[in-house]
Design goal:
The chain is of the alpha/beta class. The chain has 13 helices and 12 strands. The protein has helices at residues 14-26, 36-54, 69-81, 98-109, 127-133, 156-162, 185-188, 237-248, 252-271, 302-311, 331-337, 340-344, 357-370; strands at 2-3, 63-66, 89-93, 113-117, 138-142, 169-173, 192-196, 207-211, 277-279, 292-297, 314-315, 346-350. The strands form 3 sheets. A 7-stranded mixed β-sheet has the order 2-8-7-6-5-3-4, sandwiched between helices. α2 (36-54) packs parallel to α8 and α9 (252-271) packs parallel to α13. The longest helix is centred in the C-terminal third of the chain and has 20 residues, at 252-271.
Length: 372
């Protein structure tokens, strides 16, 4: 089996599974309890929080643990929306993850006005469009750092620079950027940032949201007051420890070099075939991550290729896993090209450091049988 859908989820590392198993067996206390096993759990939780905070240049009190990217995005957007009841305007982009788009659609129903920024054919928003969209009643901007279908990198630092002297806050969904791009929240300039564990070989059901000091947030879950009173519920210490272990195993420079090799091999091998294809989005190093390559296989329905590759033991996707079960063409590609045929003939191939060059060559050899 060849797994090339790492943008959907990644395979947990053996050390992550060991760390989680050890924590469940030996650090089983409730971290809010004051007796010995509770204190052990609190220590493990604090150590994990500190190491994860350091991975983005934050302090431990700026991290709130959540169940993953979807909850982090919901939490961030609801908090920002209600921080100032006099401001009812939100700016986002047309290519956001469903957990952002569906949340702002709900806010629209509650009286908010939303501006949806378009993208160019490379899948990137325009800073000028951001400038033009800002109004006196703009409350916040939410733009994803890296797109989950085509891998384009959005100009988050430039947006933050625009907002320096304005009472407008910035949230970024960094789920596809974390563990792939180096992130320093001070340099990036975001006020809130969402992350998920299972995209970096950690467990599913765990993530965090970075909340810059001084930003007031609204509780999404009410209860016993865990996570600074804004995300109640007993913390999942084992999964959080697994998340921290996954990041401790990350050697970003080596990972990037290897994944760039995988991407280059894919495109080099494809170019040697008779396959009629085109890459969707930019291939400029500064405008996209190497982990995701979205390819238009001209004249071949993506649904057909998915079935044939699956039967051959190769796993890729036609878009976001959060839209699984939908036979509709990718809305991201439709936003970029306004071409339904192209959108329905494209596959997303996404790598991790666990993939090999031989796997990429096997993928291309298999595609030669069905994409010509």
């Amino acid at each position: 089996m060849i797994y090339l859908d790492n943008a959907a989820t990644t395979i947990p590392l053996p050390d992550v599974i060991s760390a989680m198993t050890d924590t469940m067996m030996n650090v089983y206390g409730n971290p809010s309890s004051t007796y010995q096993v509770g204190r052990q759990a609190k220590k493990k939780l604090d150590e994990s929080r500190t190491s994860l905070a350091m991975s983005i240049g934050a302090t431990s009190d700026e991290l709130i643990f959540t169940s993953g990217g979807t909850e982090s995005n919901n939490f961030a957007l609801h908090s920002l929306a209600y921080r100032d009841v006099t401001k009812k305007h939100i700016i986002t982009s047309v290519i956001e993850h469903p957990s952002v788009l569906n949340t702002v659609e709900e806010l629209e129903k509650k009286g908010f006005d939303v501006t949806y920024l378009p993208v160019d054919k490379s899948g990137v928003i325009s800073i000028q469009d951001v400038k033009n969209a800002i109004r006196p009643d703009t409350s916040f901007i939410s733009v994803m750092y890296v797109n989950n279908e085509v891998g384009t990198v959005q100009p988050i630092e430039q947006i933050a620079e625009l907002l320096k002297d304005k009472d407008i806050l910035l949230h970024t969904d960094a789920v596809q950027a974390y563990g792939i791009l180096p992130i320093d929240v001070k340099k990036l300039g975001a006020d809130m940032l969402s992350v998920s564990s299972h995209k970096v070989h950690g467990p599913r059901g765990t993530g965090f949201v970075f909340v810059k000091k001084g930003v007031r947030v609204q509780p999404l879950l009410h209860g016993g007051g865990q996570e600074q009173g804004v995300r109640s519920g007993t913390e999942n210490v084992a999964s959080i420890a697994g998340f921290a272990k996954a990041i401790s195993q990350l050697h970003l420079t080596d990972k990037q070099k290897h994944i760039v090799q995988l991407q280059e091999t894919l495109l080099s091998e494809l170019s040697k075939t008779e396959i009629d294809y085109e890459v969707n989005g930019s291939m400029e190093e500064t405008r996209k991550v190497p982990t995701i390559v979205n390819v238009w296989f001209k004249g071949i329905p993506a649904s057909k290729l998915l079935i044939q590759l699956d039967l051959s033991g190769i796993m890729v996707s036609a878009g976001s896993a959060c839209s699984a079960g939908s036979l509709k063409p990718s809305r991201i590609l439709l936003s970029m090209f306004q071409d339904e045929k192209r959108a329905s003939e494209s596959l997303r191939i996404s790598f991790s450091e666990m993939n090999t060059l031989e796997e990429i060559k096997t993928l291309v050899e298999t595609l030669k049988k069905y994409a010509v």
